[in-house]
Every structure is written in C-alpha cells, then in structure tokens.
Amino acid sequence: MAAKQFIQELEEQRRDELIRATYHEVAEKGYSAVTLQDIATRAGVSKGSTLYYFASKEDLFLAALEWMVVHNHARIRRAVEAVDDPVEKVRAAIASIFANAQESRQFFLAYSDFVSIGARNKRFHDLNARFYHGCSGIDREIIELGVSTGAFRSVSIDDASSMSRALIDGLMMQWFFSSEITFEEYRRRCERIILDYLTV
Taking the mean position of all CA atoms in its chain, how far away is CA 69? Predict the structure, then answer.
C-alpha cells in the first residue's frame, strides 16, 4: 500500500512539473512555438513522459491553463480573506493581482496566448470563461459586502463588478505596453480609481 501511494504521489508530482513547465514555456515562447520536447526538457523528463501523463499536447496545455486559473483564484481569495474591511479587501485583491512585475508579465504573456486559442477552441473558451467567472465572483462578494455595510455607495453589483474587472484587465494591458509609467504606479492607479468609483 505504501509503495502504491508513493508511486501515485510521484506521478502527481511529475504531472505538476510538466504543467508548470508548460506554463513557463508558453510565457517565454508563445503557444505555437512550444514543443513537447521543450516542455520535457524544462521538466527534466523524456518527451515520451509528456504523452504518458497527458493524452495530447492540447490536454497538457489545457492542464496548464487550468493550473493558472486555480492558482490565481486561490491567491486572490487568500489575500481577500485575510482582511475584514471591504476597502481593505479591494486593496488586497489589487495588491495580489499587481503583486510582482515579472510574474505579472509572465502571466500576461501566457494568458493572452490562451485567450486567443479560446476564441476558436471551445475547451479553452470554457476554461477562460471559468477564469472570468471566478474573478467576477470574488469582485461581487467584496462589492456586496461593501454596499451592505455602507462602506461603498449603492451601486449595481453587476455593473460595478464588470467595471472593476475591465479596469484591472485594461490597466494591466496598458502597463504591459507602456514604458512611461511604472508597474507600481499602475497598481496605485487601479486601486484609486476603483475605490473612488465605489466610495464617492
């Protein structure tokens, strides 16, 4: 039984290493340029191992996208749940999203590739939709709490959560293509505009 459990844990570790390697390869090279050999080399396994753990390249790339979705939702939720005040929850969520310039750049590069695939591939589309649904769900919870406690003005929850998400995504994209304003300045701008909208 112990040997079986050890093998299972080892296989889960290998799968995780391949998924993370895929994420990093996509971020560095772009989806279309990444090969299974690239992923295997980064993960330190043979190319055949990728097809042992994943039936196809698409399955592996989907697993990488799902890992991104779960990882990001969990990180934001941990940050938000660590504070009680709705205003501080907004700050915590934005600080989590704009946590690190290098990581944000890597995420943007990988995720933008996955988004473009999702425009034509239903499996990627559905997973991308799940990502936005999860992010919007966290936003809605914060805004509903703020409105109910009087910390935020009375707003349409749907409108406010949609606007917050659009602003976060838009400012992240602006930062990515801008050389004039620092990452930290974009984070502060995002926080200020969202809080101004919710509290004024």
Answer: 5
Is the pLDDT at 1 greater than 70? The verdict is: no
User: Is residue 169 predicted with pLDDT exceeding 60?
Assistant: yes
- pLDDT of amino acid 179: 81
> Shortest CA distance to 196 belongs to which of 160, 169, 166, 171?
160
pTM of this prediction?
0.88
Which residues fall within 8 angstroms of residue 106, CB to CB, at 6 or more apart?
24, 27
The angle at the Cα of 196, spanning 182 to 93, to the nearest 5 degrees, equals 60
- Which helix (DSSP H) or strand (DSSP E) does residue 5 occupy? helix 2-29
| pLDDT average, residue stretch 153-162 | 96
CATH topology of domain 56-199: Tetracycline Repressor; domain 2 (1.10.357)
CATH topology of domain 1-54: Arc Repressor Mutant, subunit A (1.10.10)
Both tokens of 125, joined, read 């589309």
SS3 content of the chain, % helix, strand, coil (to 5): 85, 0, 15
Separation between Cα atoms, residue 166 and residue 85, nearest integer Å: 23
Between vectors from CA 146 to CA 140 and to CA 148, what angle results, nearest 5°?
100
Rg (CA), the chain: 19
CA–CA distance, 91 with 54 (Å, rounded to integer): 39
Q: Please identify which residue in the block is written with the tokens 């994420």.
A: 23
Residue 189: predicted pLDDT: 96
